[in-house]
């Protein structure tokens, strides 16, 4: 029996608040300061890269000198004297390459771990506001795929760019000692090659944003399909969903192809400039040798130095072609990680054990400035140890009252107080210690039942957990599970019924033992027998607690000490069940709108 068709939480969710985006204007630059917390590892990454490239260049130059010397008829003893040096450089280069890959990825994975923590911090600061209207799959793509894309920057870009400047610059200086004209020609082509990623940077940025956005949309679509698979099968709409998935996949493929075409243009330009630069150096060197200005033995050395100068640039140009995706991923990550808290604590000091008396004093609140008030001057009191039921049509503001009491949002006008303390002067953590909530839609983590119960009190001993489960009438069905309290709940607790999930939520709220209890349709998923047993447990749990009931079942409402009727965000009636029926006002009209409830309350009245 219900007073209304559905709880007002859905209506509250429809009033989606604006998202305070914190997107950095230069996302790549925003990635650099994070390295500051890992300067030691970063320094080793740069050093290992330098050792690797220097030894590779050294081995190549020695090899070129040996070839040039052999062609010009140098003595064999002179050539053999350089062979140990060549072998030594090769061995050190191989070891340095292994060292470089190790420390570069160690740095990258440390930074990725930091980014994921920052992402969760950003979500937590804005929850639940930021999550309204957001698709879980898209957020999951940001946390996993976008963060992994940034690995390219930390492992293969930032340190490599510094190494490239040093090594390529050193090669230009070295070739200047061979001949200044060779150095000038080499420098010109190196500068041209370095500008290639800039040519199509704007297009790369746009394509990267489109590609990462499409990946997020596809991820969201896949998760929707997996979570809604039962409904798709039940209604025979599997093929429709597959067609939607195909469209998304084709759109993603189109974005990937566009990105690849632009990237291939950059690759061709880079290869062409590299080949042209080495060819020019080779031609100039040949001219110099022909004119007698350059020793013939130095010809292969000059060509190898030119190739060595291009080598590091070519290596980083590969990741440079991915900067569009890296930039887009960084933008998506920082948009979440840099969210500013919309509920800000005025103080960090919690008041000493305030009396659990809750007062809503002329509270006004709206989720969006452009929309009307969800609460428009609501005023009522819940005395210490009293149970008050909030009733009203969907959208009347019932769940909004619970959200404000938990400081998920702060009031726009008026005040909510606990024991005379304005909630805005109580730190959020202290508020959540004072208030326990049993939501209508219960979420259980894919952990053991015992771990899910301990969410209310991680340090609770086993016996306290079992006692809370007994009070919530959950102990018997838990012990009947295959592994009892150690049974895994499963993803979204799919193996448990709605009533079982709700009883677990009630048990963990009881385990938390807060002085204020909020029950948001806590018995909506229970059958008659279980509801009766649970009502008894709730009545015991309410002893000494201030309880706010958001209810639609008459059987639940009648257990309250008082009833507050909300309409259009205001408390329009207050009283007991019998008083409000006799008054013939809003409450009586709500009951009259439900035939079964009408029969039920007539029986009560006559009795």
TrEMBL record:
Which residue ranges run through the membrane? 54-76, 82-99, 153-175, 181-201, 272-291, 297-317
Q: Which domain of life is it from?
A: Bacteria
Primary subcellular site in the record, as a coarse category: membrane
Location of region: Disordered:
1-24
Q: What Gene3D superfamilies would the database entry show?
A: ABC transporter type 1, transmembrane domain, P-loop containing nucleotide triphosphate hydrolases
| Composition bias, Low complexity | 1-12
**Compartmental location:** Cell membrane
Q: Please list the residue ranges annotated as the ABC transmembrane type-1 domain.
A: 43-325
Keywords for this entry?
ATP-binding, Membrane, Nucleotide-binding, Transmembrane, Transmembrane helix
Is Membrane tagged as a keyword?
A: yes
Which residue ranges does the record assign to the ABC transporter domain? 358-593
Q: Does the keyword Acetylation apply?
A: no
Q: Known PROSITE patterns for this protein?
A: ABC_TM1F (PS50929), ABC_TRANSPORTER_1 (PS00211), ABC_TRANSPORTER_2 (PS50893)
Q: Pfam families attached here?
A: ABC_membrane (PF00664), ABC_tran (PF00005)
| Membrane topology category | Multi-pass membrane protein
This protein is called Thiol reductant ABC exporter subunit CydC
Record gene name: cydC
